Amino acid sequence: xxxxxxxxxxxxxxxxxxxxxxxxxxxxxxxxxxxxxxxxxxxxxxxxxxxxxxxxxxxxxxxxxxxxxxxxxxxxxxxxxxxxxxxxxxxxxxxxxxxxxxxxxxxxxxxxxxxxxxxxxxxxxxxxxxxxxxxxxxxxxxxxxxxxxxxxxxxxxxxxxxxxxxxxxxxxxxxxxxxxxxxxxxxxxxxxxxxxxxxxxxxxxxxxxxxxxxxxxxxxxxxxxxxxxxxxxxxxxxxxxxxxxxxxxxxxxxxxxxxxxxxxxxxxxxxxxxxxxxxxxxxxxxxxxxxxxxxxxxxxxxxxxxxxxxxxxxxxxxxxxxxxxxxxxxxxxxxxxxxxxxxxxxxxxxxxxxxxxxxxxxxxxxxxxxxxxxxxxxxxx
Length: 381
Ligand code: 3PG
Ligand code: MG
Known about the structure:
- This protein is of the alpha/beta class.
- The protein has helices at residues 19-33, 61-68, 80-88, 105-109, 112-119, 156-170, 189-196, 209-215, 230-243, 284-295, 316-330, 340-348, 363-369, 375-378; strands spanning 38-40, 73-75, 95-98, 125-127, 152-154, 176-180, 201-204, 219-220, 246-248, 252-256, 265-269, 272-273, 278-282, 299-303, 334-337, 357-358.
- The strands form 5 sheets. The protein has a 6-stranded parallel sheet with strand order 9-7-6-14-15-16, sandwiched between helices. A 3-stranded parallel sheet has the order 1-3-2, sandwiched between helices. A 3-stranded antiparallel sheet has the order 11-10-13.
- Strand 14 (299-303), helix 11 (316-330) and strand 15 form a beta-alpha-beta unit.
- The chain is elongated and about 70 Å long.
- Residues 362-363 line the site of magnesium ion.
């Protein structure tokens, strides 16, 4: 079973966010309850030099064992004698975690011989690694060819992710509002373009909003602006108008004299930010406007924060949107939150169980909503 246990660890190797591990527990238990044993494989981080203590999956064994309520075995290598031997003696109900797949460069290269070695360890291939589904790696895609159609399948995480993404992309009840935030327009062009074909409303927040204001001739002070994307921003606004999609930009901003927790803070309209000041969060007017739009929606997709929510002074906008998305959910809307930062935000503010679905995918979720076919999904079709 391929899982995405690429989770954040602190200096002492404590897991600081176990969402991705927890998400797989149901799939693992299903296999065990049905009389199987499970061999788990994952990557962790981006090791470039082979085996590295910092990227060892052994740091996850204790917590995973606790979550499963049984002792998880560990193999110090994902292929080779130890992996083969430990896999062979597994009894029904046993769980074995293999060492980081990326300790072999063959993993990211999608090497066939490496994929085949992995495939030999088990009888059935389950892909439950939605977070890594945008990578065409040996364990996420190539391996599938070594299993017959009835012996390869999605796990429950993958199934849930795909079902909720499909619901938003292809059968969204209207009004459908997409909330797109984050620092850079360049990261979000493709998703906005794809959503222009589907959404009724697009809310744009975060640092990227200032490139849009600059494109409209506004004065944004020293806010983050991607000069080379001003043309793109203009294009997107024009396309939205042609398609009748409402674009909502934050009319006002919380501004600061520097990018720091101890900055001087004030507020201004987003198109008249004074020289020497920068927008680091959406303002109170924007929070009101966005809230109304979100409350009226039947479908909401949220990717990217509204401000620098890691700093207390600039987290109000992201909190405000999280609250509005939770309210909409309670009123019956289908709401999906995805992308590393927005997921961290809903977790931090305690809204994770107040929205319909929290995606375990960052890059994978983004690419899915850009309309791309993900290799990890395609390999099982
Ligand atoms: C992620 O966290 O984005 C996935 O686990 C994929 O990792 P990668 O970006 O290093 O391929
Ligand atoms: Mg990534």
